[in-house]
Amino acid sequence: MKHSTNSILLIGLLLIFSVFIGCKNETKTTNINVPAAVENDTKKQGQAFLKDDEATPNVLDIAIGSKDHTTLVAAVQAASLENALVNAGPLMVFAPTNEAFSALPEGTVEHLLKPENKAALANILQYHVTPGKYSKDFLKKFKKLGQANNQNVSVEVKGDDVFIGGAKIIASVPAGNGIVHVVDKVILPPEE
């Protein structure tokens, strides 16, 4: 009886060993289905075009999801700054509303959206972005902020209101990579 138990145990061990060896030698392949539209779209590359339904929306997602920021989103796209707004951050974006863009002199937005004005548009948009993730109340401690276009913007406090470059913060929305402060004016950088 002891001999047949040892034989069964030995056969069992050999089977386990052969399965283990077979698994180690197996070539693993992974099939990734890439939609044809993605394969053929060479212009839209980078983090901005990856979708993750489970993550907290980033600053770009928040702007895209807002009916009050369609002009801002069009400007970001025209300046090809989508990928900059989805990086790890943290970023503070001072996001002018459509009304704020409408208050600019007639034809300004259309002029800036032209391909030949891409650099000027990018400079203006980068003047709306600051490294960090500060609440409206915390911003009251600052006199100026260093912007993504390497210029400074003033911070003013009037009562409970905070103004960035003359634009009043009217709402704040936390994002996965920072915070979006909705402002009532387009903040124009000083001319050099």
UniProtKB/TrEMBL annotation:
Domain FAS1: start-end pairs: 56-187
InterPro entries associated with the record: Adhesion/Biosynth-related, FAS1_dom_sf, FAS1_domain
SUPFAM superfamilies: FAS1 domain
Superkingdom field: Bacteria
SMART domains (alphabetical): FAS1
UniProt-listed PANTHER family: FI19380P1 (PTHR10900:SF77), PERIOSTIN-RELATED (PTHR10900)
Name assigned to this protein: Fasciclin domain-containing protein
Organism: Flagellimonas spongiicola
Lineage: Bacteria, Pseudomonadati, Bacteroidota, Flavobacteriia, Flavobacteriales
